[in-house]
Amino acid sequence: MGSKYRLLPHLERVFAEIGGETAVDAFSGSGVVSYLLKVQGFAVTSNDFLNFPAVIAAATVQNSSVRLDQDLIDQICGPPADDRDFIQSTFDGLYFTPEDRRFLDSAWSHIDTLKGYRRDLAISALILSAARKQPRGVFTFTDGTKYADGRRDLKLSLREHFRERALDYNATVFSNGKRSRARRGGVFEIPDNTPDLVYLDPPYAPPSDDNDYIKRYHFLEGLSVYWRDVTIMENTKTKKLEKRFTPFAYKRTIEDALLRSFEHFADAGAIVLSYSSNAIPGAARIRDLLGKVKPSVEVIAIDHKYSFGTHVAAARRDVSEYLFIGRD
């Protein structure tokens, strides 16, 4: 939702100026910033409290050499290894065609036999395939015909998507000579709290309602574990998962959560925080909070467009994206 890809040139310059050997990306999301840090030569700890971002980071940041060979891609795209039908029956009539839902079950019948980075890569390719095929990339609605605008991503079958996305993920794999790691957990539980650089990109607390990532990405989260050890809210039309509380998503708890994050990384070389001008608290308050642990705080405002979709006609919202840079 945040389209951090557009901010990468700015982040690259900031990270290069800070320098160092080790970095933490505490809210990794799509993993694009963790990957940038790896490209820039850091040993990266990539973290998220959801499972599917942790899988993506394992495949692209922690993994330095393993790829999916063509025979395995063909096998996953071939006939099913068993007769499982969980996705077909649970999501009957939702999100995808019957053929696409059959493919997801079939793909998982093969993925279940994989281990290590091959499993991470295959799950990542499946996640990205589902996100690309779903109009707007989120799973808060069930009628996709409203957004069926004829773009290629919506025309491809999920099987065709998977073949392309598997090759895309293969192309991301490289070694920078450092050892990186991907983990799933809360920001306050990250053990590497004295790196040279910490990047924080928490959910932005809106002035009203909340910023619930599970509501938007529940299908991707479930898909990443084949809905094992998660609870589907059966009474919901979208079959979403139970909400997992995060203090960053609510205006009543965001200030304390930010301060606790800054305190957790108080001994890091530098703290870089991304935050939006249309969220709570405002820039002045965040600067005060970061200043409690880092005496020097620089604020950079970047004009930014948030894309609420995956195509050129999607509605966009002009805001400023702030980069707060705290140093000793």
UniProtKB/TrEMBL annotation:
Keywords: Methyltransferase, S-adenosyl-L-methionine, Transferase. It is an enzyme of class 2 (transferase). It catalyses: a 2'-deoxyadenosine in DNA + S-adenosyl-L-methionine = an N(6)-methyl-2'-deoxyadenosine in DNA + S-adenosyl-L-homocysteine + H(+). Pfam families: MethyltransfD12. InterPro entries: DNA_methylase_N6_adenine_CS, MeTrfase_D12, SAM-dependent_MTases_sf. It comes from the Bacteria. GO terms for biological process: DNA restriction-modification system; methylation. This is site-specific DNA-methyltransferase (adenine-specific). It comes from Mycolicibacterium obuense.
